[in-house]
Specification:
The complex is a heterodimer. Chain A is mainly α. Chain A is built from 14 helices and no strands. In chain B, helix 4 runs antiparallel to helix 5 and helix 5 packs parallel to helix 6. Chain B has a six-stranded mixed sheet, sandwiched between helices. In chain B, strands 2-1-4-5 form a four-stranded antiparallel sheet, covered by helices on one side. A two-stranded antiparallel sheet of chain B has the order 11-12.
Chain lengths: 313, 267
């Protein structure tokens, strides 16, 4: 029943984002319209894939760092990706893929640094240090980003600023295909770690007594979730709160067993981002809001309610 | 002769950077149908001993074998099918119901992509019944009393269908009724299901009442080992715990009563 509902919501969100847009396309023309096929359809699919990836990455990382309020971008990836993107803009790197590649490299650099910091205490990956290291690396990258932006001219500044708040206007069938080929690998790794992730909620010691190879699981989950987030941020910029709020809502309905939680977070995240992107394109049409603004405007109030609930319980 | 489930032989361990051995010359064996308790004051090496027995730490010298294979060599999932553990502390990050948490004990028996089978749910039902918590199956963990919660955690370990059960200070913060109830439950599992039990505790009297065999540690070294009557003599207890005691016998087992006034001749 709840699955039927969720799938329905996901399909509706996708349909809505194909039907709605600043340009009026009559329903009868829908299947023949270039706007629909070349702009709206790939954009809707990309939003769905990115949102779903962020939902799954968020749910996994929350279990890994044992903090139900963790967000995939908390681990410094957004800072690194932002720095990469802004560098690409400032250096006038051209070509449709310059920005995503630069952002991806920035995210990977941050990932590597945070991972190295997480191993600082020895051979065992410490999730608390991952979290703190992520915040520190993110802040450091953001400082450099701000320094570059402050020296840039007005047009560059606007581009960089908009990119940092996320946007799917660069969506094409190529980028959909790329994400559709790339994302299933880390997604499968995370899904395969469902049971160990359930066990990690009891703490590392108990998890190992119940058969989890804790060190291997932590490394796998951290790397897979981060690579997933890095790809998402590369094609769409920094889109906050999807990876935080969606897993939370999924937990309320599906419980904490990751075998159902992760697929639910994927569908929910996809639906939310497809819907948020539709709003971003239409509410101030013909202009467009960064989609991160929309997800934050939806996400922060929801987050506040959840935070209250969590603290009381 | 029965195969021993757990055998520590002349184990020595020192934590990296520490100046002294945490354990030295410790030997211990637990066979099926045997209730073995490890006793000692705080900091005597009890927890280190558990970590070594469960393969979390590898001894620097000596051996720690679970069924004839070094404990740290076992793949965790295989080991979890043989040894069920009730750790001293754990905090559940997410709210969970009793049945869900006991089902976690079946995880070592599940394949990577497979679902839980009917036999898994049967094992959960049996574990719930054995620990007398079947009526709590749909309750949230946080609504349970301390005694109920401990019994649920024992049920989770039983759902692993282990041959050896390890409990680390299971009686901590339980009142008399629940503490006695828990020890009776564990003894019942030893006698009824033939489990081997290794229990860490600092409650001398309960250990003496229930266990077949005791190991008394002090400063990481074995002070005495064997049947309760041989281990818990007045002299040994006074030396290890640095406090004068009187000893009595209840049900043929030694029981210790701490005295008020330190004696002149006390250790």
């Amino acid at each position: 029943m709840k699955w039927t509902l969720l799938v329905t919501v996901a399909v509706l969100a996708l349909l809505l984002s194909v039907v709605l847009g600043p340009a009026a396309v009559p329903l009868s023309e829908l299947l023949r319209s270039d706007i629909v096929w070349n702009l709206r359809a790939p954009r809707a699919l990309l939003a769905f894939l990115v949102g779903g990836s962020l939902g799954v990455a968020g749910a996994s990382l929350q279990a890994l760092v044992r903090n139900p309020l963790a967000d995939p971008f908390l681990l410094g990836l957004s800072g690194g990706a932002g720095l990469g993107a802004v560098l690409a803009i400032a250096l006038h790197l051209s070509g449709p893929w310059a920005l995503p590649i630069a952002a991806f490299i920035g995210a990977l650099a941050a990932l590597g640094l945070v991972y190295r910091l997480g191993l600082i205490g020895g051979a065992s990956l410490d999730p608390r240090i991952l979290l703190l290291g992520g915040v520190a690396i993110g802040a450091f990258a953001a400082a450099i980003t701000t320094a570059i932006v402050s020296l840039a001219d007005a047009a560059e500044l606007r581009n960089a600023f908009l990119w940092l708040w996320g946007g799917l206007s660069g969506a094409s069938w190529d980028s959909v295909l790329l994400v559709a080929l790339y994302a299933p690998i880390p997604l499968a790794v995370l899904l395969a770690a469902s049971r160990p992730l359930d066990l990690l909620a009891l703490g590392e010691e108990s998890a190992s007594y119940l058969g989890a190879d804790v060190e291997r699981v932590k490394r796998r989950v951290y790397l897979a979730a981060s690579l997933l987030t890095a790809a998402a941020v590369a094609v769409s910029g920094v889109i906050g709160f999807v990876g935080l709020v969606v897993p939370h809502i999924a937990r309320l309905t599906w419980g904490h067993r990751h075998r159902s939680l992760l697929p639910a977070a994927f569908l929910g995240g996809g639906a939310l981002l497809a819907f948020a992107d539709t709003l971003a394109r239409t509410v101030v049409a013909p202009r467009e809001l960064p989609v991160g603004v929309v997800t934050a405007l939806i996400g922060v109030p929801v987050f506040a309610v959840l935070l209250r609930r969590w603290t009381i319980a | 002769m029965t195969t021993e489930l757990l055998r520590l032989q002349d184990v020595r361990y020192r934590y990296p950077g520490a100046k002294e051995d945490a354990l030295r010359g410790v030997s211990l064996a637990v066979a099926p149908r045997q209730f073995h308790a490890v006793l000692g004051p705080n900091g005597s090496g009890k927890t280190t001993l558990v970590r070594i027995a469960l393969g979390g730490l590898t001894p620097l010298a000596g051996r720690a074998d679970v069924i004839d294979r070094p404990a740290s060599d076992w793949p965790r999932q295989d080991l979890a099918r043989l040894v069920g553990v009730v750790p001293q502390r754990e905090d559940n990050l997410f709210p969970q119901r009793v049945r869900e948490t006991v089902l976690l004990g079946r995880y070592p028996h599940l394949s990577l992509w497979g679902r839980e089978r009917a036999e898994d749910h049967d094992a959960v039902d049996r574990a719930l019944a054995a620990c007398d918590v079947a009526h709590l199956a749909d309750r949230w963990l946080w609504t349970l009393s301390g005694g109920e919660y401990q019994r649920v955690r024992v049920a989770r370990a039983l759902a692993q269908e282990p041959k050896l059960l390890v409990l680390d200070e299971p009686g901590m913060s339980l009142d008399l009724k629940h503490e006695m109830g828990l020890f009776e439950l564990v003894l019942g599992l030893v006698r009824g299901q033939g489990l081997g039990v290794l229990m860490i505790t600092h409650d001398l009297n309960l250990a003496a009442r229930f266990a077949d065999s005791l190991l008394l540690l002090e400063g990481g070294r074995p002070v005495a080992a064997g049947a309760p009557n041989d281990v818990l003599t007045q002299e040994t207890v006074e030396t290890v715990f640095s406090w004068p005691v009187a000893m009595q016998t209840v049900d043929g087992r030694p029981q210790m009563i701490p005295l008020r006034q330190p004696k002149e001749s006390g250790a």
